[in-house]
């Protein structure tokens, strides 16, 4: 079991099950092509609060996320953190959650984990991951507002 600081106690078991579900997911082709981020099996696949008032959905994990063993690391993560901190300065009680649109790192088959080999997930991969995983997380988080960043539509 993981230690969750921002997860409602009654939801911790469900969140643990969600992590297992993500780690064992074989629903889309990314599970074959992708090297799963190390955090998929033992680190949170989301950041923030569960439940949350505002859920930010960002594009798929990047190389920096894989290397940092954390979702939303690097420059993109810094920008999102600034946005969240600005929101919290106006609404200090707002609970915010962040999650990637897909959990696997999509890169060109047969290549390494170089940023240049990164590719955006296909519409099919986004749809399958949403149906298999993200929709369940949205049920757990129960956000009032969902904001999509990048090409997550």
How would you name the oligomeric state of the polypeptide chains in this document?
single chain
Overall shape: globular
Query: In which order are the strands of the major sheet placed?
Result: 1-3-2-4
- Portion in strands: 5-15%
Low-confidence stretches: 36-43
Radius of gyration: 15 Å
Class derived from helix and strand content: alpha/beta
First-last Cα distance: 32 Å
**From N to C, what is the helix and strand string?**
HHHEEHHEHE
Q: Average pLDDT across residues?
A: 76
Helix segment count?
6
Number of strands: 4
* Helix content estimate: 40-55%
Largest sheet: 4 strands, mixed
Describe this structure in words.
This protein has a four-stranded mixed β-sheet, covered by helices on one side. It has 153 residues and is α/β, with parallel strands linked by helices. Helix 1 (12-23) runs antiparallel to helix 6 (123-141). Helix content is 41%, strand content 10%.
Topology:
Blueprint: H1 12-23, H2 30-33, H3 39-42, E1 47-48, E2 54-58, H4 63-68, H5 74-90, E3 96-100, H6 123-141, E4 145-148
Parallel strand pairs: 2-3, 2-4
Antiparallel strand pairs: 1-3
Helix pairs in contact: 1-6
Short description:
The N and C termini lie far apart (32 Å). The protein contains 6 helices and 4 strands, in the order αααββααβαβ.
Name some characteristics of this structure.
4 strands, alpha/beta, 6 helices, 4-stranded mixed sheet, 41% helix, 153 residues
